[in-house]
Amino acid sequence: MTLEIYIKELLYRYDCVIVPDFGGFVTNNKPARIVGNTFLPPYKQITFNSLLQNNDGLLANHIASVDKMPYKSAVNFIHFEVEAWIDKLMEESLELQGIGTLVMENDTIHFEPEAQTNYLTSSFGLSSYISESIQRNTDVVTVKKEQEVVLVNQRQIYKEQVEEIEKKAQTLLVTKTSKKSSNFLKYAAIFVLSSSILGLLGTKMYQDNLEKKQVIALQKEQKLRETQIQEATFVIENPLPTITLNTVAPVDKYFIIAGAFRNKANAEKKVKQLTKKGFEAKIIGKNKWNLTQVAFSSYATLNEANKNLNIIKKNIAKDAWLLIK
User: Fold this and answer.
1) Is 256 helix (H, G, I), strand (E, B) or coil?
2) Partners of 129 in beta bridges
3) What are 187-199's pLDDT values in tens digits?
């Protein structure tokens, strides 16, 4: 198997996998996020630190255990793989399947992680989800239009019925009695038509009135909720006096020393080198032997200073030491 396969297996279980004489792959847990309409689960973000090069034994022991080989053979395997990686980086980009792509620019390795593999075991089985856009419902508008069409059609039907009744009534105008009968039929037809139209109009007015009552009821309920919220607001009749605290930013008094120089120009050169590697390096003055001291970084608490001192001594400078001012 290739070296990146062993690294991938360890990234599921550990937050840092160091490849000796090359660099370390460090993971950080990231929460779920939304990109456009896509919901993405929590994941492990992979970064690369070229300063982590000392062999901590994790990768070599894993290879030796999986392939049933001596530890020294596993170390040699890693060494040959790293040499091949460096040779390739000198000419082109190095793609580690399932991990990311590394590119060498101006003696600095840049890393772009691969986004398809999720090394966070608690998110196993969770995939991205795309939310579809919401479609607005137009059924209500369609129903209202249909009701209006039905009302117009019914009016037309009643009008035609009245005209038909009037034609029949005119043929009966022979005597006074028949005239009265025709007038009665005419008024009866008009009454029927008016009652039907008023009935339809009354139904529509009833529905409109019901909607208005519902709106008024909702407005009253909303106003009542607002009143309850206002009454529930915490009001302190005798508030305590305001206390103003003048905070002072913590002062750094713990310094991890990178070296002391008789020539100040050499000290400034050292600061530039450390700054380029990502440290907040600075000159912190001269010691009692009149040597200019350069610090990797400074800290406000002893615990934080000791933690970073151990990392620097293990991976960068064994002779680094802590100065307390």
Assistant:
1) strand
2) 39
3) 655 665 556 555 5
The three-state secondary structure class of 134 is coil
- Whether residues 15 and 112 share a domain: the answer is yes
Rounded distance, CA 222 to CA 209, Å? Answer: 20
Residue 230 domain-assigned (yes or no)? no
Across 112-127, average pLDDT: 78
Positive or negative torsion for Cα 252, 47, 51, 74: positive
**What single letter denotes the amino acid at residue 171?**
T
Residues 238-290: tens digit of each pLDDT: 554 555 555 555 678 899 998 989 999 999 999 999 999 899 999 998 888 88
296 in Cβ contact with 258 (< 8 Å): yes
Do 166 and 184 belong to one domain?
yes
119 and 193 in a single domain? The answer is no
Written as six digits, the tokens of 181 are: 């009968």
pLDDT confidence bin for 58, thresholds 50/70/90: very high
236 lies in some domain: no
Hey, what are 118's tokens?
A: 């999720």
Are 105 and 89 in contact by the 8 Å Cβ rule? The answer is: no
Note whether residue 243 is domain-resident. Answer: no
Q: State the residue range of the domain holding 203.
A: 139-223
Does 181 fall in a domain?
A: yes
Q: What is the distance in angstroms between the CA of the first residue and the CA of the last residue of the chain?
A: 52
The residue whose two tokens read 């590119």 is: 103
- Shared domain check, 284 and 207: no
| pTM of the complete model | 0.40
Mean pLDDT value across residues 213-226: 60
Of 223, 239, 274, the one marking the end of a domain is 223
Burial class (CB in 10 A: 0-12, 13-18, 19+), 221: exposed
Please state the rounded mean pLDDT for residues 18-39: 85
**Angle formed at CA 316 by CA 313 and CA 93, multiple of 5 degrees:** 150
